[in-house]
Amino acid sequence: MGLIVAIDGEAGAGKSTVAKEVAKMLNFVYVDTGAMFRCVTLDALNKKIDVSNKDGIAEILENIEIKFENDALGQKVFLNGLDVTDKIRTKDVDDKVAEFAAVGEIREKLKELEQEMGKMGNIVMEGRDIGTTIFPNADVKLYIEVSEEERARRRYNQNLEKGINMSYEEILANIKKRHKLETEREISPLRKAEDAIEIDTTNMTFEESIKRIITIINDVKIGKNLKN
User: Fold this and answer.
1) Helix or strand (DSSP H, E) at 209
2) CA atoms within 13 A on the CB side of 27
3) Distance between CA atoms of 174 and 152, rounded to whole angstroms?
4) Angle between the N-to-C axes of helices 15-26 and 206-223, in degrees from 0 to 180, rounded to the nearest 10
5) SS (H, E, C) 170-182
6) 3-class DSSP assignment, residue 71
7) Measured in Å, how far apart are the chain's first and last C-alpha atoms?
8) Do 139 and 216 meet the contact criterion of CB atoms below 8 Å apart?
9) Residue 201 and residue 42: Cα distance in Å, rounded?
10) Which of 39, 137, 144, 218 is deepest in the core (most CB within 10 A)?
């Protein structure tokens, strides 16, 4: 079995961008678990199902299908057969995703899907609890740390490129709100695994952070005598 690389960190820490590039360079499969929670949230919003509606959520989880596909422009996310790559990044989803991500039934369902994806090995999976809950025995555990202000600045610039209209102050407020919800929730709260390597990218360029991570993974591959 190939390597499992678990990358955790807070909202807006750049985990997705880093994980995508690392997976691409190593020819590994990339899984964005945050997008999976966003898919559940979008489905619930579309069906006007509140986070407290247990029956409604159960129905969503029973029938939900989430797929990732790569194309020349990057990775696309499909929810029940529809391309929702941009729709899961809207303000409405931003405002609600942390609440839905705290629901135990949702976390358990997505945990099953994530662990099934990991069985193939040679995978880079990023999220909030990959190294602590999903793959506690992952070969490589990384925790990406970035200041809240820098995270808000990066997200603001990304939104501008995508034509999403959200102010810097609004994004920063969302980041702080999500930090509180994710670190204080009862089920699988955000925390750094004891054996995870912390990488603070606040003052690092994208290239520097990628180089650091690739070096760590290659060291593990050498230790395990793996060529690919």
Assistant:
1) helix 206-223
2) 3
3) 9
4) 50
5) HHHHHHHHHHHHH
6) strand
7) 11
8) no
9) 30
10) 39
3-state DSSP call for residue 164? coil
CA distance 25 to 228: 11
Name beta bridge partners: 75. Answer: 70
Burial of 99 (0-12, 13-18, 19+ CB in 10 A): middle
DSSP state of 127: E
Answer for the pair 191, 132: CB distance below 8 angstroms, yes or no: yes
Confidence of residue 154 (pLDDT cuts 50, 70, 90): confident
E-state strands within 48-192: 66-71, 74-79, 82-83, 123-127, 140-145
Please enumerate in sequence order all residues whose Cβ is within 8 A of that of 48, keeping only pairs 6 or more positions apart, or say none. Answer: none
* Sheet-wide strand order for 29-32: 29-32, 123-127, 4-9, 140-145, 197-200
Per-residue confidence band for 56, with pLDDT thresholds at 50, 70 and 90: very high
Q: How confident is the model at residue 1 (pLDDT cuts 50, 70, 90)?
A: low
Beta strands in the chain (DSSP E): 4-9, 29-32, 66-71, 74-79, 82-83, 123-127, 140-145, 197-200
Identify which of 149, 147, 111 has the alpha carbon closest to the alpha carbon of residue 128: 111
